[in-house]
């Protein structure tokens, strides 16, 4: 997939967000100097399909605490979620699912779907009473059965759009 460099990003921060080695990014993109990138530059992220080739998209509404699964422009399913609290807000923006881990344990429930922003993901929960609330450290929490269902449908590379409303 192609990542467009945004203000404040570095090769290292991009590598961390996508969970790939810096050296891999440098090599794949034929970059001799990791300190020279510019806003708007396109960086190839190996191992992930281009989101436009995936028939699914996930839209997250922080205000309504809903995650909507869309396929080819049609709503497939709407799930209730929990979002970040005031001091640890869920980040607004466009991301992709970069990897997944079944049964990560602890508060992450039955499945973890990593987003292309380090430390953030869509995951299950060991506290189902938290769903519908703003209580997380910024991640998107789902009922375990819902995140398992979602993970069985969407592949890595799926676009995730998080909006305030």
From TrEMBL:
The keyword Transferase applies. Pfam families: LysM, YkuD. Residues 1-45 form the LysM domain. Keywords: Cell shape, Cell wall biogenesis/degradation, Glycosyltransferase, Hydrolase, Peptidoglycan synthesis, Transferase. PROSITE patterns: LD_TPASE, LYSM. Pathway: Cell wall biogenesis; peptidoglycan biosynthesis. It comes from the Bacteria. SMART domains: LysM (SM00257). The keyword Hydrolase applies. The active site is at residues 123, 139. InterPro entries: LD-transpeptidase, LD_TPept_cat_dom, LysM, LysM_dom_sf, Transpep_catalytic_dom. Residues 56-163 form the L,D-TPase catalytic domain. Belongs to the YkuD family. This is L,D-transpeptidase family protein. The lineage of its organism: Bacteria, Bacillati, Bacillota, Bacilli, Bacillales.
